[in-house]
Each structure stands twice: as C-alpha cells, then as structure tokens.
C-alpha cells in the first residue's frame, strides 16, 4: 500500500466515523473514553472538559492511544485505525482557529452549542480544544486479508517513509 492509498483509506474512516476511543494512562491506571473528533491532516481534533478524567490524565502524561472504527456485524468487515501519539492543546491563535474550523466543519451543530454554553447545561462552557498528533497510525482492514495491517510512522504530522505491512499476529 502506497502512502496516498493509506492516507485516502484513513481519511475515509475519519470522515465516516464520528467517535474515537481515546486511551490515557497515569499512575499505572489506564482509562478509555469516547470523544467526537475531526481530522486536520493526520491530527485529530476533539473538545474536552479540563475536569474530565482523560484530560487530567493527559496533563500528567500526554502519551495516548486511540482507535477509530465503524460498527460492523462480521469480523470479516473489521477495519479501522489504531493510533499512538500525544495530545496537547493547539498553541497560538492560528492553530486554535484551524482546529476549531476542522471541528466545526465535521460537526456544524457544535457551533450553536459553543455559542450558547448556558443552554447546554454548561457541558461545553469550559471545554477546550485538544489535538491528538499521531506518531504512528496502523490501518487494519480484514477485506484485504484477515489481520492485514499497515503501519505508517509520523513525525510532526508528516509521514516518514511509506506504510509498512506488519506481520500478522
């Protein structure tokens, strides 16, 4: 699989699926939660309350993992992304504007929620933008063969070399 094909497959998944499962860890205690996300290149943008358990974990340890996958009825249909990376808030006005634009493009309903936080029972009143910057993406697609998984290493949001076919486990 070439980088363009990998990127296209990952992009289709990110456009099709609204929620990613984010896994964090601190004090040797893992935690997973689902968050709405939007892609911005390989970066994944989400909103989160600083008081949430995963946000508090990420302040202590920004390393995380995530998965993105559609619901399927058969193991033969399994496909998705497995992600390793770090989460940080966007730095600077331009980065914040870009992250918010990516999020609102995918979730236009959030515009009204953000504009009127009092009406949403405060759920978004203190929410902050977060950016998951992957260091490795794995694309799994059983339609290409059971357990077929391609891996792409990233540095600063850019692919480093072509995707590599990983050995089946």
Description:
This protein is an alpha+beta fold. The protein has one domain (3-166): Roll (Pnp Oxidase, Chain A). The protein has 4 helices and 10 strands; from the N terminus they run αββββαββααββββ. It has helices at 3-16, 53-60, 93-106, 109-115, and strands at 19-26, 29-36, 38-40, 43-48, 63-68, 79-88, 128-141, 149-155, 158-159, 164-166. Strands 1, 2, 3, 4, 5, 6, 7, 8, 9 and 10 form a 10-stranded antiparallel β-sheet that branches. It is globular, with a radius of gyration of 16 Å. The two termini are 19 Å apart.
Please render the helix and strand layout as text:
Elements: H1 3-16, E1 19-26, E2 29-36, E3 38-40, E4 43-48, H2 53-60, E5 63-68, E6 79-88, H3 93-106, H4 109-115, E7 128-141, E8 149-155, E9 158-159, E10 164-166
Please give the radius of gyration in angstroms: 16 Å
Structural class, please?
alpha+beta
Oligomerization state: single chain
Strand runs, count: 10
CATH top level class name: Mainly Beta
Mean pLDDT: 91
The biggest beta sheet is recorded as: 10 strands, antiparallel
Query: What share of residues is helical?
Result: 25-40%
| Total count of helical runs of at least 4 residues | 4
Helices and strands, in order, run as HEEEEHEEHHEEEE
Termini gap: 19 Å
CATH architecture annotation: Roll
- List the uncertain runs: none
| Total of domains | 1
**CATH superfamily label:** Electron Transport, Fmn-binding Protein, Chain A
The portion of residues forming beta strands comes to 35-45%
Coarse shape: globular
- According to CATH, what is the topology? Pnp Oxidase, Chain A
InterPro entries: Pyridox_Oxase_N, Split_barrel_FMN-bd
Protein name: Pyridoxamine 5'-phosphate oxidase N-terminal domain-containing protein
Domain Pyridoxamine 5'-phosphate oxidase N-terminal: 7-103
